[in-house]
Fold Methionine aminopeptidase.
Amino acid sequence: MVELKTDTSIDAMYEAGQVVGQALTAVRKAAAVGVSLLELDEVAHDVLRGAGAGSPFLGYRPSFAPTPFPAVLCTSVNDAIVHGVPTGYRLRDGDLVSADFGAELGGWVGDSAISFVVGRPRPDDLRLIETAERALAAGIEAAVVGNRIGDIAHAIGTVCRRAGYGIPDGFGGHGIGRRMHEDPPVPNEGRPGRGLPLRHGMVLAIEPMLIASGADEYHAAPDGWTLRTNDGSRAAHAEHTVAITDSGPRVLTAR
């Protein structure tokens, strides 16, 4: 069931979203050659503590997971697409990092992700990241009252496919509110004019995920969480929490 949020609730979700934005900004600033993924997780955790917020990631265990998630931040490096578990791995020059983070404040959740390169970037990586951001922007632009979920999915998928990138099958965005994952699912590819109508008060986490080689296949790493490309190609991820309103989409995790 899809819960429509009141304007007051959307304002409260904006406050949670700003904590998310602050954390991702801090993580991006701290990421450098030689910094470990666990150190980045601690940077994000410090932002939560300072804001008096909780983590919807820490201890989260969906049906597919063998263990609860052990961190507040997902750090997916190079061929990791999403759900990367922070480890003692130290960042190297040219690493492509996707950082995904959530915060819970006052009973409401925000969720967002960014991708960036540490050190000297490869032009192909910059193009991949820029396309992920364009796909996210296209999805947000389609998130208007009167459209349907399929319009968001089509907008994202069109940008990704035209650029020659793959889209991991079965993964996409989701509704969000009191819980991190709510109805409805928001695919990253689909047919326009299909699916649930968009109404004022719906809040969605829109999150394109791209695979550089154009392939869609992936597998779970031994940790049971990290999803990696089958062919070893790099991946990028971009995400915002977005409220559907009569005056247009409102990005609640804007940085």
User: Anything to note?
Assistant: Residues 31 and 118 are 7 Å apart (CA to CA).
